[in-house]
Prior knowledge:
With 316 residues, this protein is of the alpha/beta class. Helices cover 32% and strands 23% of the residues. The strands form 2 sheets. A 9-stranded mixed beta sheet has the order 1-5-2-6-11-7-10-8-9, with helices on both faces. Strands 3-4 form a two-stranded antiparallel ribbon. Strand 8 (186-190), helix 6 (194-209) and strand 9 (216-220) form a beta-alpha-beta unit.
Amino acid sequence: xxxxxxxxxxxxxxxxxxxxxxxxxxxxAATACAPGTxxxxxxxxxxxxxxxxxxxxxxxxxxxxxxxxEPIKSTKVLRIAIPTNEPPTQFYRxxxxxxxxTNPDIARLLGQALGVKVEIQVAxxxxxxxxxxxxxxxxxxxxxxxxxxxMEVLDFVDYMQMGNSIAVAKxxxxxxxxxxxxxxxxxxxxxxSYQLTVNVPDYDKDCTAAGKDTIQRSxxxxxxxxxxxxxxxxxxxxxxxxxxxxxxxxxxxxIEIAAKYDFTPxxxxxxxxxxxxxxxxxxLSGVIKSDSYLKVLGKYGxxxxxxxxxxxxxxx
Length: 316
């Protein structure tokens, strides 16, 4: 998924890493995340002025910037892990290694608010939490849903909302109308996703209680791969974040959206005890009230994903 130019390493937060790594190992086992570590830094992007990124300018929030941990104040760099190949939330500009989409752009707004440069590090979704635990990244802006399990190792601050969508082959040959119709079906899911680790286990319980077969799961590193499996007849449906599948359906005439539901916030994730959550919370509280935030969401047709409260550690 998600070979670009390497970015120079710097001095970054390392406090609490051994304990976080131990907990992260438990988290991976509990959530069935594969231990993949594929990662590649994109061209460093974002700076205090936001120049050259196509992101609207946003003034520095001095009060939030003062709350940054000393190592970040010193380097003035935030390494932010984000997957790719999933428009409109995160993808490369055509023919480049420059990341764009709602998540990279909101990461850049956050960088502007904190007066720091943003280095986007492209990583598979299921490798992000281990990468944060190992000190490779300072945080992630990757549509990650705050869950109690993830909050054992990360702090979260809400920054937008999104739901689930179910994509099916054109004409909906299996007659799938909602998540309850997925029992016994072959369903594609993103490795490590909320849908795979939280939704599907709950759906399976309902299937079993109704005397039906559980969902036949197939895991993919990005939804583009899952959609390819769907259109080739290897899957009955794909369950993933609504912005990604809704956009895919506008680009691919072989699929359609059978259902959209469960709209909840997603959050910026950062290591517990890193000292980042106070500064990020203060900065995002300003970001989500700004015209720049609404312009970024509007750029990708996601105005309805706006939120008005940057809640801290609010589990879904």
